[in-house]
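From the methods appendix. Each design record in this collection lists the tokenized structure first, followed by the designed amino acid sequence. Records were kept in a plain field format so they could be parsed without special tools. The example shown here is representative of the layout used throughout.

RECORD:
FOLD TOKENS (639 positions):
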């Protein structure tokens, strides 16, 4: 390069005042002219850096750990023993970064790209996020030069990061940036990141992400006019009003120009005609609205690659809340008032008697007439509130009176008498002539509790009860036929039913008592007893039940007789056996042969069999009286 050219370049650079600074300076950036994020995806590695995104002097590889002089595009580093495991600096799931194992040469470059259509005289910022990947023993730490060059390769300005330190506790991303002002006659430059440190193992291994080249200029601090610190507002559609967006005048431009922008959802668009430091908006539809102000020298304000932008002002218009207050009105005193409001985030009720509630659906039990009036519900959703009112009417209850309890006899009826209202309804309806009148005729078969519901002209109701006691007519029952043997006793076991009754037995002879239901009878002979049941309330006629007791004679069985025709003890005479005409008598000899068999004992055994005298000896008998009793034993025949 000749001396004249070098001098021109030097004057050129000094004349346009190059600024080198950190990204934290209180200035504003514009939308990036270049923003290399390396993309994102589901694969572990992305393809090599596309030509339209820039270039690098390093060789692409899809290996997790590139060799010296190689790079890869990946979402996660995966060499735990040597490198830190990290993801891209934004933490974006699947986001890629550029991972470089630097070569031994100090002249290679990590990234280079031409940037066109810039505005001369405009300041820009060149930045990138960088991290030292090595966990320990970094012989030659990364050291990068950021440079701005002409398209012919002349360096206009550069910035050296210096040594990027090794971190022993965790991987750290660090953003490096510098600003410069483009010469007035320039529009295209080369941005470049060059390696200043030798590679090798282990040395100069790094990650790069978010390489950005953006307009940089005076600070634009946008706010709502209500307060300089307010950058977001939340309002309601129903309460929408004009909002003024403002930015303080900027210093740093010779002839500053302004342009308000709105985020359409697909990008930022200029708002036609809004070119001052304030802008009044009045959106009415619910939604989220974002605004910002762009600024540049007036001559280049229409170029998006030459202007800076303010912070974003966010206006959230929530859907207006609705409050629909309802109640189960009208009510009668003593009932429960149930209030209800439409759904929201919070609720506030006010009403008569200093009533308040923060429930959506509050209730008031045992309501009184003093609770009548207007109840207002305020429903809040987000920061939006609305109110509505419901009028509650409370009426007095009817005064039901069902009359006094009454007693009737079974089969009779009585007239019920209710009062206290204009409408009547009785339950149960069993035995009623008409359940919907005040004075129905009641003919219940059993004692019944009737409930009357009395209503008044306001449809308020109350209830009362009346008991109709039904006295049952007397009834009598008993086991009709009993049997005993003379000298035995037996219980009669009668049963008496009915209301208000008394009972007795006739005749009262041979009874343990004639005024109990189960007296013990010991009659000497057949007899019929009658149970009498009488209503002491005069309900129905007397009821009776007869019990016949058959009294069997006791038999006497001798064990010896002498059938020798001497007129004394010539027959086996069993006393009273002839009173059992259905009885059977069987006599067997000692060999088990039947020698006598008869039904009834009208004639005593004379010791013969087939008209021949049986031999003297012992014989065995079985006597069945056919009343459940049997006798067995022996009898001795003596000749």
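DESIGN:
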């Amino acid at each position: 390069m000749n001396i004249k050219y070098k001098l021109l370049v030097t004057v050129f650079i000094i004349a346009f005042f190059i600024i080198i600074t950190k990204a934290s300076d209180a200035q504003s950036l514009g939308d990036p002219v270049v923003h290399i994020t390396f993309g994102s995806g589901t694969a572990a590695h992305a393809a090599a850096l596309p030509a339209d995104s820039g270039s690098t002097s390093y060789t692409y590889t899809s290996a997790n750990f590139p060799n010296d002089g190689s790079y890869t595009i990946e979402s996660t580093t995966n060499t735990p023993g040597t490198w830190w495991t990290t993801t891209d600096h934004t933490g974006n799931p699947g986001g890629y970064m550029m991972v470089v194992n630097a070569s031994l040469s100090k002249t290679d470059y990590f990234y280079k790209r031409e940037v066109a259509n810039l505005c001369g005289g405009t300041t820009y910022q060149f930045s990138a996020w960088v991290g030292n990947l090595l966990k320990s023993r970094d012989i030659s730490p990364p050291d990068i030069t950021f440079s701005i060059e002409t398209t012919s390769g002349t360096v206009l300005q550069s910035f050296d990061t210096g040594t990027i330190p090794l971190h022993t506790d965790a991987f750290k991303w660090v953003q490096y940036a510098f600003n410069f002002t483009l010469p007035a006659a320039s529009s295209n430059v080369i941005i470049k990141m060059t390696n200043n440190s030798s590679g090798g193992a282990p040395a100069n291994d790094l990650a790069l992400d978010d390489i950005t080249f953006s307009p940089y200029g005076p600070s634009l601090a946008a706010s709502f006019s209500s307060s300089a610190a307010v950058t977001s507002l939340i309002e309601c559609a129903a309460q929408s009003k004009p909002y003024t967006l403002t930015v303080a005048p900027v210093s740093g431009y010779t002839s500053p120009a302004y342009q308000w922008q709105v985020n359409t959802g697909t990008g930022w668009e200029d708002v036609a005609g809004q070119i001052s430091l304030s802008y009044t908006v009045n959106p009415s539809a619910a939604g989220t609205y974002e605004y910002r102000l762009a600024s540049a020298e007036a001559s280049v304000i229409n170029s998006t690659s030459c202007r800076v932008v303010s912070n974003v002002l966010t206006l959230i218009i929530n859907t207006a809340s609705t409050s629909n207050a309802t109640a189960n009105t009208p009510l009668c005193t003593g009932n429960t008032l149930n209030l209800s409001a439409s759904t929201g985030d919070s609720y506030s009720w006010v009403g008569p008697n200093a009533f308040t509630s923060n429930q959506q659906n509050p209730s008031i039990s045992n309501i009184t007439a003093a609770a009548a009036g207007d109840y207002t519900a305020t429903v809040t959703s987000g920061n939006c509130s609305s109110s509505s009112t419901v009028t509650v009417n409370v009426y007095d209850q009817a005064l039901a009176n069902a009359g006094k309890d009454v007693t009737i006899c079974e089969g009779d009826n009585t007239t019920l008498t209710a009062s206290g209202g204009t409408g009547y309804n009785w339950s149960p309806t069993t035995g009623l002539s008409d359940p919907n009148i005040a004075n129905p005729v009641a003919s219940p078969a059993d004692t019944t509790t009737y409930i009357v519901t009395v209503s008044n002209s306001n449809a308020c109701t109350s209830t009362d009860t009346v008991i109709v006691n039904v006295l049952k007519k007397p009834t009598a029952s008993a086991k009709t036929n009993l049997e005993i043997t003379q000298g035995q006793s037996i219980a009669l076991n009668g049963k008496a039913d009915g209301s208000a009754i008394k009972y007795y037995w006739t005749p009262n002879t041979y009874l343990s008592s004639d005024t109990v239901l189960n007296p013990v009878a010991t009659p000497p002979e057949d007899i019929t007893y009658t149970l009498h049941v009488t209503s002491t309330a005069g309900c129905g006629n007397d009821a009776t039940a007869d019990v016949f007791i058959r009294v069997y004679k006791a038999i006497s069985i001798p064990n010896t007789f002498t059938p020798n025709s001497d007129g004394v003890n010539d027959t086996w005479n069993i006393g009273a056996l002839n009173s059992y005409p259905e009885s059977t008598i069987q006599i067997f000899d000692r060999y088990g042969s039947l020698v006598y068999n008869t039904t009834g004992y009208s004639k005593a055994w004379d010791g013969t069999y087939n008209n021949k005298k049986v031999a003297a000896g012992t014989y065995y008998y079985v006597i069945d009286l056919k009343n459940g009793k049997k006798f067995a034993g022996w009898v001795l025949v003596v000749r």
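APPENDIX NOTE: The CA atoms of residues 398 and 461 lie 5 Å apart.
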